[in-house]
Amino acid sequence: MKNSVTTDEKQNGTDEQNVKGLAILGNMKQYSMVLFLVIVGAFFQFLTNGTFLRPLNVTNVILQNSHILILAIGMLMVIVLGHIDLSVGSVAAFVGAVAAILIINNGMNPFLAILLCLMLGGVIGAWQGFWIAYVKVPAFIVTLAGMLVFRGLTIVVLGGRTIASFPDMFRSLSSGFIPDVFGGGTELHVTTLLVGALFSLVIAIILVLARKKRISYSFSVPSMPVFIVQLVAIAAIVMAFSYTLASHAGIPNVLFILVSLIVIYYFATTKMKAGRYLYAIGGNEKAAQLSGIKTQKVVFWTFVNMGMLAGLSGLIFSARLNASTAAAGDLFELNAIAACFIGGASSSGGVGKVMGAIVGGLVMAIINNGMSLLGVGIDWQQAIMGLVLLSAVAVDVYNKKSAA
Hints:
It contains 15 helices and no strands. By secondary structure, the protein is mostly helical.
């Protein structure tokens, strides 16, 4: 009897160790890309003798890559469904061209033009979503056709010319900064520091509540010391980033837009039914349909959403360029797709997170910017990014085989 109890106790201890080990492994997977992002940033900071993390360069990285990160959010949802969208670059270029016609050539109010252009992006997404969801034409074919159609329409709309320049109100969409309400003439952008502190507090509250909820469901959680270290590390990163921005011109308007989208889509994909439907369909569409999910409707609206985000990306890119050209949007779709896969999305669907896509996009942005500062040519930059993408997908395939 004593031996039996002893054996049971040993077995329970082993089970607890296994659970803790799985929890640690899960945390490592969750934060591995963030850790890789930090390592890559530190690597280029060292190689560039401190140039990489200068406030001006950090701000430039945000301004130059925000349109890709916005596309990555929408593309992540499409990839989770098990589809792909090759048309987003052409759609972005087309919407940017229409914006130029409305604002520059016809003098339309920029706010009204932005609203109409976002609606246009949604209509384009609805057109493609109809063929994919209801006619069952493969998304690869539909969006490949869309890439050709809207690239051609962009040239038609612009008449083969470059149209410039946009009014300051429109350009502030990409190149403007949030005013310093509490600055009082100091060198640092005080409002940015306050926003950073508030953001750190909100993140801490969310993580504390999430931890309590997991404990209430008897799920494994990191120990309190580890959890506190996590909170301190996150707050330190946010405040360091805020201080860097505050040392230049503050928070760019486009960063505010991007963070708002990240928060909205994070909660939409993790806390709402629509998000759960995405992962269910991506995991097994037939099973999701049998469980009562209207799969066609979900696919349709996902492409509508992708069209609107592509339109927003095109507007932001045109505002930063201060012009609309037929060459705009080149390789946007490939960069957005790469960001999702590097960030942990699965090529077979059903797997991927919004924050993962953002981190993947930032990894690409940091590598490209760092190599540019080191004088590496665009040819080698593309080759290296191709290897990074291949490695990310190979790791995903390996993990699936190991789990099986």
